[in-house]
Amino acid sequence: MNPAPIAVALDAPNLETAARWATLVTPHVSTVKVGLELYLRYGPDVVASVRGASGVQVFLDLKLHDIPATVAGAAHAVAHLKPAYLTVHAGGGPAMIRAAVEAAPQTKIAAVTVLTSLSDDDLTGLGLAGPASDAVRRLSALAVEAGAHALVCSPMEAAAVRAEVGPDVTLITPGVRPRGSAAQDQARVATPEEALAAGADLLVIGRPITAAPDPGAAAAGIAAALRRTSAARS
Length: 234
Ligand code: C5P
Fold this sequence. Notes:
By secondary structure, the protein is α/β, with parallel strands linked by helices. The protein contains eleven helices and eight strands.
């Protein structure tokens, strides 16, 4: 059975917990995501720890944002870890995005458009006039033009982004909550089925899986629900 297109966010307090969650979920999902907190605390060893023997894809969510030469150096520094995905902020501009793409040729560079934590008012304050959805579309087009292979956006924006960039770009969506689970600090959420229907290719899901009494069972349950939906659709 193919693993489900889910990246489990391993936002764990320590390496042992992250590795345990990874072991439990990897039979069911394609990808595990390592964020800044874990990477800054434990360094590059964290990638081997969560990958384990399973060979699951690792999504390195470092959200790089600096001048092109510095981002090239940073992407080069992690390229040997062979993450499937590495994030950069699209707001760093086309030269910075291209620098990351060239420095890590075996990794899909995923551009983060607008953080879902920013409201329209925040964006106006930052000098990005217009609704967040316009900024997301502009940044998506710019990032893909600069060579980004993937984009991170909210499930609410996935359909508009897909229309903007076409079928070949991988759309990654956080803010995913299975029906009935708490939204927590995510404001604009969609169910896994809705996110896929909107055009997402890879769903980032953290606490609904990792905070469950049995993370393996929670991952298996969501994976099975996604398979039922795609079987019903085809
Ligand atoms: O636990 P939860 O499912 O909310 O985890 C979502 C993950 O996606 C976290 O690792 C968070 O940092 C990340 N993320 C997000 N919103 C973004 C980008 C990343 O929630 N716009």
